[in-house]
């Protein structure tokens, strides 16, 4: 309370949605560069939703090879909350580009709160080798 008035409580505004992915590559354990990864996502967005969705804003936060018993290439992206359903649909419908390095991708987890992506395995981000 400030001078007898109650301050209205406001929650955190959710502006972004975070998606953790596992990538399958034509050469095992080789990490695709960010441009190749963006191109693959843009390609499937165009296939599904046309050229108007080709300019969907996607931030690649991290991409690398997770050092585990069986090495995996994983990535984390950030999209606007309004675009999350379109991007998730596109990622699930991904088909490889002829001759492309990324042969498949699957969503491991998605959330509007970034730390949720690591809740099941806190070491995954530290074990990535870009």
Strand order, main sheet: write it out.
Answer: 4-1-3-2-5
Portion of residues within helices: 10-25%
* DSSP summary, beta strand count: 5
Residue fraction in strands: 25-35%
**Radius of gyration, in angstroms, nearest whole number:** 18 Å
The low-confidence runs, each spanning 5 or more residues with pLDDT under 50, are: none
Which of globular, elongated, flat, extended, rod-shaped describes the shape?
flat
Number of helices: 2
The major β-sheet equals: 5 strands, antiparallel
Please, how many domains?
A: 1
What's the end-to-end separation, in Å? Answer: 49 Å
Mind explaining what this structure looks like?
With 130 residues, this protein is of the alpha+beta class. The chain has a single domain, classed as Ribonuclease P, Pop5 subunit (Alpha-Beta Plaits), CATH 3.30.70. It contains two helices and five strands, in the order βαββαββ. Strand 2 (58-66) and strand 3 (72-80) form a beta hairpin. Helix 1 crosses helix 2 (84-92). It is flat and about 65 Å long. The protein starts with 15 loop residues before the first strand and ends with a strand. The mean pLDDT is 83.
């Amino acid at each position: 309370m400030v001078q007898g008035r109650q301050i209205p409580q406001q929650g955190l505004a959710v502006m972004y949605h975070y998606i953790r992915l596992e990538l399958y590559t034509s050469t095992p354990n080789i990490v695709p560069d960010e441009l190749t990864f963006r191109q693959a996502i843009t390609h499937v967005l165009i296939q599904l939703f046309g050229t108007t969705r080709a300019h969907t804003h996607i931030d690649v936060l991290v991409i690398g090879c997770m050092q585990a018993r069986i090495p995996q290439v994983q990535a984390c992206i950030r999209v606007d909350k309004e675009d999350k359903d379109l991007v998730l649909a596109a990622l699930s419908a991904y088909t490889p580009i002829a001759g492309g390095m990324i042969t498949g991708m699957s969503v491991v987890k998605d959330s509007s709160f970034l730390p949720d992506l690591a809740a099941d395995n806190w070491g995954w981000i530290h074990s990535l080798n870009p």
